[in-house]
Records
---
Amino acid sequence: MEALSVLLPVFGVFIPALILPGPDFVGVVRSSMTRGTRAGLLTTLGVSIGLGFYATLSLLGLSAVLVKFQWLTWAVRVLGGAYLAWLGIRLLLARPAAIGQQPTHGVVRGNALLFGFVVTLTNPKAIVLFASVFADSVTASTPAWLMALMIALVVVSGLVWYSIVALFMSSAPVMKRFQHARHWIERVAGASFILIGGRIIADARNPVSP
C-alpha cells in the first residue's frame, strides 16, 4: 500500500507528460519515418535511457540543487533550448536526399541511440518534471527498492510508448504514403525543434519550485 501511495500520484503525472508531444516524440517520429524501424527503436532506447538517467538524478537530490542554484536551472534551460533550436536549424537547412538513399547530413548520420539520448538530455522539461514530481515523492525513509522500481518503470514506460510510436511511424503503410516526403518530414521536425527550443528559452527565468 505504501508503494502504491507513492507510485500512483507520480505516474499519474508522468504518463500523461510522457504521451504529450515534445522533443522526444519529434525525435522518435523523425528517426522512424526517415530512417526506418531500426533507427526509430534505437532512438526510443536512447530516449528511455535519458529518462532513466534524469529519474535517477532526481531521486539522488537533483531538485535540491536546482532549487538552491536557480542560475543553474536557467543555464540548463537556455543551453538545452539552444541545442534543440540548433538541431532544428540543421534539419531545415539539410539538402534533400535522392529517393532510396540515406540522408548524409551530420544530424542524421550520427548514431540513432545517441541522438535519442542527447535530445532527452537537452530537454529541460524532463529535468523540471523529474525534479518537481519525482523528488517530492520520496523521503529519507523511502526504501531503495522502491526508488529503483520507480526508475525501472520510467524506462519501461518510455520504451513501451515510444516503441509503439516508432513501429507505427515506420510501418509499411505509413512509409509508403510518405516515401516522397522524407525531406519535408525533416523540415517539419526541424521547425518543431526550433519552436520547442525557443519556448524553453523563453521560459528559462521561471524558477523551479521546492
Note: The radius of gyration is 18 Å.
---
Amino acid sequence: MKLGSFFAELKRRNVYKVAVGYAVVGWLSIQVATQVFPFFEIPNWAVRLVVLLIIVGFPIALVIAWAFELTPEGIKRTEEADLVYPGRSLGRAWIYVVISAGLLSAGLFFLGRYTAPNENKIGNVPAKSIAVLPFENLSHDPDNAYFAEGIQDEILTRLAKVADLKVISHTSTQRYKSSPDNLPQIAKELGVANILEGSVQKSQDQVRVNVQLINAATDAHLWADSFDRKLIDIFAVESEIAAKVADILKAKLTGAEQHAISMQPTRNTEAYQLYLKGRYFWNKRTGPDLQKAIDYFKQAIEKDPGYALAYVGLGDSYILLSGFGAARPQDSFPLAEAAAKKALEIDDNVAEAHTTLGFSLCVHHLDFAGSIREFERAIALNPNYATAHHWFGDGPLLAVGQFDRAIAEGKRALELDPLSVIITADLGADFLVARRYDEAIEQFHKAIDLDPRFYYAHWNLAQALEMKGDLRAALTEYKKAVELDDDPFVLALLGQAYAKLGQRDEALKILAQLPQIAAHRYVPSYSYALLHMALGEKGKAVEWLERSYQEGAGLDVIFLKVDPMLDPLQKEPRFQALVAKVFAEKQ
C-alpha cells in the first residue's frame, strides 16, 4: 500500500477522528482525576493509575478504530460494514462531542488552576511545615522523661536548620502530648501542615525510638519507623529521622544544611545526658531551675570540654539569670559572653551561640552594630531559631529605633513559636515602644489569654494603658502584677502610678521599701529612676539612670532613646549626655 493510500484509508476508517476524540476525552479524564480526586481525599496512586490507563489505552483505541466500525446494527468488522453500508459517514456529531469535551476539560483545568491550593501552601499554612510533638517516655524509670524530651528537642533542632522548612519551636509544642486526639486542631493552632510524634524507651545503654510523620489535615501517615540502637548511636538516629522527614516534605537541603543535620556534637554519652538534663531545667524558666541547668551544663563540659552546645546552654542560662532575679547583670552577663565565645571557638557555625553572643554584645557592651551582625549570622545559620528572631527584635533593633524591622522579627519569632507567652508579650512590648499603643494592648491581652498569671504581661499592659492616658486602668493592672509576683521593679511601677494619680504618700511608702528589698535581692536602679521622675524629681531620676549605666545594667539603659516612660527626661541635658555615652560608637 502506498503511503498516500494508507493515510486515506486511516481517514476513511475514522482512525483520525478516534485519535482526536480519544485525546480530548483522555485530557478531560486527567483533569477530573487531578482536580477532583484530591477534593475527595482520593490517594495520589489513583491519579497515577488513571493517567497510566489512558496512555496504555491510546494505541488499543486506534487498533479498534481500524478494525471495527459502529453501525446501526452494532459494531461490525470494517470489511463487513463496507459491504452493507458503502460510503457511510458518521456526519458531524463527533465534532460536537469533541468540542464539548474540550470545553469541559478546559473549564476543569482553569477551575483547578485558580481555586486549588498553592503547591507551597495548604490554606494559609506552608506545605513544608512541621511541629515535633513531645515524645512519650516509655521507660520504666520516670526520671528518663528528660531523655525523651531531649530526643524530641534534638530532632527539632536539626530540622530547624533547614531553611526550606518551617519548624515550630520547642516551647509551643510542649503544650501537647504525643499521640494527641485532635491533630487537625493542633496543627491549626501551631500553623503547620505536618506533625511528627513518637516515643522513646531507654534501658541502660539501649534506646528504642518510634516515630511517625502525619499529614494533619488528612490524618494520613506519611512515614513511620522504629530504631533500636546503642545509646552511642543516638545522634545517627536523630540525623536519620531529620533527613527522612526533610526528604518526605521535599525540602531542599544545601550542603551546609546536610552537614548540620548529620553533625555529632559529642561522642561522650554521659556528657550528652547531662546536657539533656540541663536543657530540661532551662526550659522551665525559673531562677532555681536555671541554677540547676547551669550545674548540669558544667558537668557536661567536664565530661567533654569540646562540647560546643553545652557551652551554649551555659551561656543561655547565664543570660537569663538576672531577668528572673537570680543574679546581678554585671555578674551574669560576662559569664554568658565567655560561654558563647568558647562555643564559637569550638564551632563557629552554632546559631545558638551567635544568638547568645549577639544579646551579650547588646546588653553588656552596648555594641549595637556588633550585636546586629551576630544576630544576622545566627538567623542565616538557623532561620527557624525563634529565640534569635525574638532577641534580635526585642534587643538591638528596638534599642536603635528600627521599629518596623523589630516588629517584623517579633512576628517571625511568634510564627515559629506561636504559643510562647514571652514572645507574644514581647511583640506587644515592640508595639509599645513604637508608640502603637492599641496594637500593644491587644497583644498583651493575647499573652494574658495564654497565661492569666503571667505577671510580665500584666505590667506591660499597664504601661501601654498608662501611655495611652488611662491611668486608672493601668493602676489596676499594676496591682494584679504585684499580686502575682514579688518583683521589686513591678512594685516601683505601681508606686510611680500612685504618684501620677496624686497619691504621693503611697508612692513614698513604696520608695522607702525598695532599699529594704535591695538588702537581700537585686533591685534595678531603673526602678528608683521611674519613681523619682513621677514624683517630679528629674535630677534624681537621671542620677539613678547614670548609676544603672555604671552598674552595667544593659537591659535598662539600651532603651533610653526610645522608652516612652522616659519621655519627660528627653530634654534634660544630663540625660542627653547619658544617651550619648550609651550610643557612642564602639571600637
Note: DSSP finds 28 helices and ten strands in the chain.
---
Amino acid sequence: MFPGSDDSGEGERYELSQSLVASDSLPLLDMLDTDALIARLPKCELHIHVEGSLEPELMFALARRNGISLPYASVDAVRQAYRFGNLQDFLDLYYRGMSVLITEQDFYDLAFAYLARARADNVRHVEMFFDPQGHTSRGIAFATVIEGLTRAIADARRALGVEASLIMCFLRHLDEADAERTLDAALAFRDRIIGVGLDSSERGNPPGKFKRVFARARDAGFFLTAHAGEEGPASYVWEALDLLGVARIDHGVRAMEDQALVGRLAREQVPLTVCPLSNVRLRVVDDLAHHPLRRMLDKGLMVTVNSDDPAYFGGYVNENYRASAQALGLARDEIAAIVRNGIKASLMTTGEKDKALADVDRVLAETV
C-alpha cells in the first residue's frame, strides 16, 4: 500500500505511514468490520410505514402516471423539503406525498420497491404499517389499498425471499368514530391484516382516546401495538399498555424519563421498536450520540432498531444500525442483541424464529 525503498527516505515514510494505520485508523477499520457484520446479519423490521418508503423518484413517477401536479419542481426540490422542525412538519409533507397513490398498481409498486430495498439490507421478515384512513379519506377504496399491498407481499415472498405482513394503523389525530369505521372495513380483509396500531400526531392525542376500538380489535383477534413515548410523554406508554392492552410499543424512547416504567418494560420484556435516525430528524433527540438506545439496552429493555419512514429520514434498516453503532460505540455483542430482539419480538412462528436466531449465531461465528 505504501511502496518504496530504503533510498531517499522512502522507507522512513513507509514506517510512519504504517504507524498511522496502526493507530489513528483503527476506529475506521473497526467500523468497516462493524458495517460488514451488520450487512450480513439477518434482520427483522417491525416499524416501517410503507407510505413512508415513498422515495421522491417514485413519487414523481406515480404523479406523472396519474396526472397529479406536485408543488415541487424536481426530485431535488422534494429532498430539500425533507427538513423538518418537528413531527407535524413531517406529517404535512407525508400526507401530501400520499396524494400520488391512487390505483392498486400504485400501492403494489410502493410496497414492492420497499421490500426489494429491505432485502438489500438482509431483512428477512417485515411487519409493515399502513394508514388506510390517509387513503379512504381521499376517496380511495380500502380494497384498492389492500389488494395492491398484499399482491406485492406475495410477489416479494416468491421473488425476493422476504416475508411480510400488514399492520393497519389508526390515525390518532382523527376521532375514534373514524377509527371504528376503518376497523369495520378491515374486518372484510381479516385474513390479510395481522395487527392494529396507532400512529400520526402524538401530542394531545393520548392512547386512551382509542380504548374502545382497540378492545374491538383485540376481540377480533388482531395483534395490538401503538406509537407512544416519541413526542408524547412517558404516561402515554402506560396508557398504551394498560388502556389499550398492546403487546408492543412503537418508539417508546421517552419511557426512559420514568424509572418505574423502565422497570416494568424490563420485567415484562415489552418490545420497543426504536427508530434512531427518525428520532434525530424529528428532533426527539438533538444528536444521535445522545440517543437513549444504549441506556435502554443497559437497563435490560427489549429494544429493536427500525427505519420508520426511511424515504423521509435518510436511512433504511442497515443505515440505522450503522449510524447508531458509530454514534453510540455499540459493540458487536450489543448489535447482535438488538438483532436477536427484533427476531424474538416479531410475529414469526417459533420455528421461524429458531431458524433466524441460528442464522445469527452462524454469521457471528463466521465473522469472529
Note: The longest strand covers residues 163-171.
---
Amino acid sequence: MSDVAKAELHVHLEGTAPPELVTRIAARNGVDLPERLLGTDGRFRYTDFLDFLATYDLAASVMRTGQDYRDITYEYLCSCAAGGAIYVELTASPDHAALVGMSDEEHLGGIAQGIDDARRDTGIEGRILISAVRNFGVEQALRVARHAAEYPHPYVVGFSMAGDEAGFPAHDFAEAFEIAAGAGLGCTIHAGEWAGADSVRAALSLPVTRIAHGVRAIEDPALVSELADRGIVLECCPTSNVVLGVYPSYETHPLGRLRAAGVRVTLGSDDPPYFGATIDGEYEVCATRMGFSSDDLRDITRTAIDAAFCDESLRAALFART
C-alpha cells in the first residue's frame, strides 16, 4: 500500500516504543527494567487485556525525561513516514508522566520537539491528544482536562480517555469531557472494545465526534444506524482487536460491515510493538485480508483527515497530499 497516503488517529504514544527503545531509555535513565516486562523472546509480556494495561504501565515507568518523549515521538513518526503516513495524532498520557515526576510542560515539550524534528526530516505532521486513564479515577481525569483547558498548547488538539472501559463507565467522566470540549478541544473516547454496544451508546452521551475502537457497535443494528446518521467516526484497530481476542480473525472483524452500513471509519495501530502492528500494516491487512481496494483505503485516509482535530489550514494541506 505504498502508493496510498496514510493518516492515523489512534495510537498511544507510550505504547509506540518497542522493547529495544524502552531498554535503551531505561539504561540512559539508570533504572532497571521491570522484571516481568519482557519475555525470554525479548517481546513485551502479557496474558490478557488487563495484564496488557499493567505491562504498558511498566514500560511507561522508565520514561522519565522530555528527551525520552522526544525520542519516542521522533522514532515513531519517522517509521510512520517510511510507510507512507502523512499525519498522526499521538495519544499522550500526562498521568503516566506525572507518576515519574515529570511536569506537563516537560512532557509536552519533549513530544513537540519530536514532532518538529520528524517534520524536518520526513515531512510528516503530528499533533497530540491528551488522554485521561479511566482506571486512574475521576479526579485525575478532571485534573488532566482542566490543565489542557487552562494551559493550551499549539500541538494539543484533542482530549481522549483510555483504560478499562468495562470497569469505569463513560458517564462518570462527563464533567471532564465538558471541560475539554468547552476549551475547544476535539473529543474521543475508548468504547466498544472490551465492553459491548452499550458502552458505545454511553459514549455518545458525551461531547465526542469520534470513538476509539467502537467496533462492537455492530452488535446493535440501531446503534450502527445512529453512528452513520450522526457521522461519528470510529478509530478502528483491526490487528489490536485480533491479537487481543476481541475478534478471532481479520475475516470476522466488522470493519467492512460497519463501513458498508455508512459508518465513517479510520485505521490505527493502537500500541504497535505490543501487537506486531504498524499503520502501514493496517492498510495492508485491509487490502489483503478484508477486501479493501486502493480507492477504499484512500477514502479511509481522507475520512481520517476530515475527522482530525487539527486546524483547517493543516487539514487543507493534508488533503492536497492524498
Note: Residues 47 and 122 are 36 Å apart (CA to CA).
